[in-house]
């Protein structure tokens, strides 16, 4: 019994997989894409389906992709023929093939490509063919939930796209806590593990906003295991209520645990003291410059995330805003990024709502529930009723 047929629109060969995990190929084999051990077509019905002569490694076949002149088989077993494994101990999340090129997305947030690069479909500067998988430089993937991403190869082009997922401010901060990008302070646990964190977050989440509280935190962490330390930092970054009560009793004197995360982020946004280099990113607009802490923008906007993690030179601290948002719409958007709240003192108009409907897509904000647009519409309706 055949379970599945594998065939792509631009391929003139195909595979069939039966319930015994036996693989059969038929169609064009001019370049050996069926794997018969010879270059000849296999189209005759009288021959039925030529069972692949080349041995398939043991392990369940997960997926098969047919390119124009090549085929990729994904299975559960591991390669042993190559002395330097291509994928370390990480699993392949998805494979997609084009006419002459292939993309591979792995669970450890890497995108690899090989094959033809004549049209830049592999995103390498060198357009020469790549015989083995090479990592494609997309640093922002390290910050993303890779399970939301998909890849698709066309005839001579490639797509990396994602499905929308919802998050809130606390969830975004927990993600930030678990990432090493832009960390600027380290803590050593009792068992010798290193935890990296962000001074900006600690300053506003610890009481009194001074270095003494950070030193106290270092002393506490030095006496805790890595598991306990992770709980403490999740509490600091998100007010996570799942922390062990005993642990909480030890840190409650130094943490602003009664302050909502939204209020903490609002204080960071409203801080006017620029001498401490907290507002380390400049956005140039027609009417003026705006300064923001880069760290929060990265956490909340995929546009900024991709921008900051892809650029390493000095210009990465300054960009020009091409969104064409009005000053009011821009302020609403940036205030929302930091606080998940609508900025007070701005009259909501239909024009602002229309602008921000486009602006939210332009800045690729993390999806929240409720989202900014819904809240703006509700506020606009309430204004008109009053």
Automatic annotation (TrEMBL):
Transmembrane segments: none annotated. It comes from the Eukaryota. Residues 279-346 form the BTB domain. InterPro entries: BTB/POZ_dom, Ran_GTPase-activating, RCC1/BLIP-II, Reg_chr_condens, SKP1/BTB/POZ_sf. Gene3D superfamilies: Potassium Channel Kv1.1, Chain A, Regulator of chromosome condensation 1/beta-lactamase-inhibitor protein II. RCC repeats lie at residues 21-77. PANTHER family: REGULATOR OF CHROMOSOME CONDENSATION. This is Btk-binding protein-related. It comes from Anaeramoeba ignava. The lineage of its organism: Eukaryota, Metamonada, Anaeramoebidae, Anaeramoeba.
């Amino acid at each position: 019994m055949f379970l599945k047929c594998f065939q792509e629109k631009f391929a003139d060969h195909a595979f069939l997989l039966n319930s015994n995990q036996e693989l059969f190929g038929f169609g064009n084999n001019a370049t050996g894409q069926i794997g018969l051990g010879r270059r000849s077509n296999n189209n005759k019905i009288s021959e039925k389906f030529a069972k692949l002569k080349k041995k398939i490694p043991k392990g369940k076949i997960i997926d098969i992709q047919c390119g124009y002149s090549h085929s990729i088989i994904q299975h559960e077993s591991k390669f042993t023929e190559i002395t330097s494994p291509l994928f370390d101990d990480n699993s392949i999340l998805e494979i997609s093939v084009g006419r002459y090129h292939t993309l591979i997305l792995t669970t450890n947030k890497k995108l690899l490509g090989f094959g033809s690069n004549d049209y830049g479909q592999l995103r390498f500067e060198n357009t020469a063919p790549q015989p083995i998988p090479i990592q494609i430089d997309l640093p922002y993937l390290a910050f993303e939930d890779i399970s939301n991403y998909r890849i698709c190869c066309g005839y001579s082009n490639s797509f990396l796209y994602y499905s929308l997922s919802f998050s809130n401010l606390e969830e975004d901060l927990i993600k930030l806590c678990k990432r090493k990008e832009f960390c600027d302070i380290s803590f050593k646990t009792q068992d010798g593990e290193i935890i990296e964190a962000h001074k900006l977050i600690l300053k506003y989440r610890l009481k009194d906003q001074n270095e003494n509280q950070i030193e106290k935190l270092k002393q506490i962490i030095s006496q805790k295991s890595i598991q306990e330390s992770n709980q403490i930092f999740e509490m600091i970054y998100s007010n996570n209520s799942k922390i062990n009560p005993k642990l909480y009793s030890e840190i409650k004197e130094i943490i602003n645990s009664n302050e909502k995360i939204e209020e903490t982020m609002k204080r960071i946004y409203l801080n006017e003291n620029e001498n401490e280099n907290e507002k380390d990113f400049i956005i140039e607009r027609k009417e003026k410059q705006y300064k923001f802490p880069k760290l929060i923008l990265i956490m909340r906007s995929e546009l900024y995330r991709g921008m900051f993690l892809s650029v390493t030179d000095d210009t990465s601290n300054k960009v020009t805003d091409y969104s064409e948002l009005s000053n009011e719409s821009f302020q609403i958007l940036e205030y929302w990024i930091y606080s998940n709240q609508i900025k007070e003192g701005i009259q909501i108009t239909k024009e602002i709502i229309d602008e921000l409907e486009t602006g939210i897509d332009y800045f690729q904000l993390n999806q929240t529930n409720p989202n900014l647009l819904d809240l703006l519409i509700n506020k606009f309706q309430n204004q008109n009723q009053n």
